[in-house]
Design a protein that fits this description.
By secondary structure, the protein is an alpha+beta fold. The chain has 11 helices and 14 strands. The strands form 3 sheets. It has an 8-stranded mixed β-sheet with strand order 1-2-10-7-12-5-4-3. A hairpin with a 5-residue loop joins strand 8 (240-243) and strand 9. InterPro entries: DIOX_N (IPR026992), IPNS-like_FE2OG_OXY (IPR044861), IPNS-like_sf (IPR027443), Oxoglu/Fe-dep_dioxygenase_dom (IPR005123), Plant_2OG-oxidoreductases (IPR050295). GO terms for molecular function: L-ascorbic acid binding; metal ion binding; oxidoreductase activity. This is Fe2OG dioxygenase domain-containing protein. Keywords: Iron, Metal-binding, Oxidoreductase, Vitamin C.
Length: 350
């Protein structure tokens, strides 16, 4: 049980705040190798693609933007989206309210604690190493799966603005997935039917400053188990890095007010490998706290996860097994998060 991801975990924020100041990093946070905080390769200066959502949805210019989206999903698995409909004013209010939440005494935050959901810190990863970050994780859809001690009990202003954020991203996710379905030339509504009223959740993650950032990771290298993930860099402090197709780690320099979209493992399966999920990680800052939000978009529980029949017919062979969404997530949560091991387990050896 010592390395179980669902165990009650110590807050990293409280560790950093404690007196006397932290002079060395506890062993259970130390990575096996030093982290390359800057990547001295030609690809380190590469910028991830940017998609304009207004243009994507426009009948007059949508085709060009659709091809940009298609290329980004195939060649990167990650892109920025601008003109996405999320109000900067809502984001600014959320920033202040999230900062206030993480400034609450630990006993107040622990009221939102839970087993796998709610408030916690320092998640255990491969080899028993912990992430340098705390998080508040909440299931948001379907509504009947919401836990009564989480979103309904948050301070009212944070709750209301978070609801606005969730509803806006829900609409954005639906539009993006519709465009991806079109770009992949899937049968109409083949993917949308699985995603309608699907599982959705949000994670608000706090990464404290670290005196030796080259020795820890805020989030271990991984691909998301989702269909897509939409990320917001709440307080403007960077740290997200993406792994390119040549194996290099590059910093994701996020444009002001932009959101980042990640192709998840489920979308790679749906697309029969035409789109590849993005492996990514989070580094930490020696001087500044970093706050981010991740919105996870998944199929409904009764749906099956497998390659789209229309794509397998046009581009055989079938590269992945088909399993239920429920079994998929049971398998995922039964593993320690590590790179793309969850996806590897679904591959068919052709």
């Amino acid at each position: 049980m010592a390395n179980s991801p669902s165990m009650k975990l110590t807050s990293v924020q409280e560790l950093v705040k404690a007196a006397p100041p932290l002079s060395s990093i506890p062993l259970h946070f130390l990575q096996q190798t030093r982290i390359a905080l800057s990547v001295p390769t030609p690809s380190s200066s590469a910028e991830i693609p940017t998609v304009d959502y207004t243009l994507l949805a426009s009948p007059g210019s949508g085709e060009t933007e659709l091809q940009k989206l298609h290329s980004a999903c195939k060649n990167w698995g990650i892109f920025q989206v601008v003109n996405h409909g999320m109000s900067p004013e809502v984001m600014e209010k959320l920033r202040g309210e999230i900062e206030e939440f993480y400034e609450l005494p630990l006993e107040e935050k622990m009221k939102y604690g839970g087993d796998g959901e709610g408030y916690g810190g320092g998640r255990v990863r491969a080899n028993g190493i912990r992430d340098w970050g705390d998080r508040l994780y909440i299931t948001t859809n379907p509504v009947h799966l919401r836990r009564p001690n989480l979103l309904p009990q948050l301070p009212s202003s944070l709750r209301d603005n978070l609801e606005t954020y969730i509803q806006t991203l829900k609409t954005l996710a639906s539009g993006l997935l519709g465009s991806m379905e079109e770009a992949l030339e899937m049968e109409a509504n083949e993917m949308a039917a699985k995603m309608d009223d699907g599982l959705q959740s949000v994670a608000i993650i706090y990464y404290p400053p670290c005196p030796q950032p080259e020795l820890v990771l805020g989030f271990t290298p991984h691909s998301d188990a989702t269909c897509i993930t939409i990320l917001s860099q709440v307080n403007g402090v960077g740290g997200l890095q993406a792994k390119t197709r040549d194996g290099s780690w590059v910093p994701v320099n996020i444009l002001p007010n932009a959101l980042v979209v990640l192709v998840g493992d489920i979308l790679e399966v749906f697309s029969n490998g035409l789109y590849e999920s993005a492996e990514h990680r989070v580094t930490v800052n020696p001087d500044k706290e970093r706050i981010s939000m991740a919105f996870f978009v998944n199929p409904k529980l009764e749906a099956e996860i497998g390659p789209a029949a229309s794509l397998v017919m046009k581009n055989p062979p079938c590269r992945f097994k088909t399993i239920s969404t429920e079994q998929y997530f049971n398998n995922f949560f039964g593993r320690v998060l590590d790179r793309k091991t969850n996806l590897e387990a679904l591959k068919i050896d052709n």
